[in-house]
Amino acid sequence: MKNRKDGDVVAIKATRYVSYTPPLSGFIELNVDAIYMGDDNHIGYGGVLRDTISTCIVGFSKFVGKGSVLLAELLGIRDGLILAWENKFRNIVRHSDSLMAVELSKRVPIGPEFNPATAIGPLNRPEAKRNSCPPLFPRQLEAKKLEN
After folding, report:
1. pLDDT given at position 28
2. Which CDD domains has this protein been placed in (predicted)?
3. What are residue 35's DSSP bridge partners?
4. If you ran DSSP here, which 8-state letter would residue 127 be given?
5. For the segment 105-137, what is each residue's pLDDT rounded down to a tens digit?
6. H or E element, residue 59
């Protein structure tokens, strides 16, 4: 490479193809993603329930307030599971870009007593308060049935 010196930073662009595989017959998929605005530590999440032919059954989103990305992922998983349960779905596959959130959500019972701070435990940031997690009920979850 012409005019390149030792220590120069070179950016390499790579194309990555991603495909979606729907859940197995008899299952629905819960897909959750968190948003974190680093300037002021605001968090939120959104999610979707899909059936075996990739049809979106219901979508949801919520602004939470201040917190960590992990907290937002856990809250999204929690509310997505509750929404699925309320819609009579029992075989649910959880997907998130946070493997830690999925694994933590499997170890803590999901229900009225669920407190994401308990799931996070020592992973909480020092400045986060354990009792600052939003309560499960009443929750103000924006859910929309998606029409074809």
Report:
1. 92
2. RNase_H_like (cd06222)
3. 44
4. T
5. 777 665 555 566 665 554 444 433 333 333 333
6. strand 56-66
* Structural domains in the chain, sorted by start: 28-145 (3.30.420.10)
- Are residues 131 and 117 in contact, defined by beta-carbon separation less than 8 angstroms? yes
Whether pLDDT at 97 is above 80: yes
What dihedral angle (degrees, nearest 10) is formed by the CA atoms of 83, 84, 87, 90? -150
Instruction: Provide the pLDDT confidence category of residue 46 given band limits of 50, 70 and 90.
Output: very high
- Distance (Å, whole) CA 4 – CA 27: 54
Rounded Cα distance between 8 and 142, Å, is 48
CA distance 47 to 70: 15
Scanning the chain, the segments in alpha helix (DSSP H) are 69-86, 99-107, 116-120
Crossing angle between the packed helical segments 69-86 and 99-107, to the nearest 10 degrees:
60
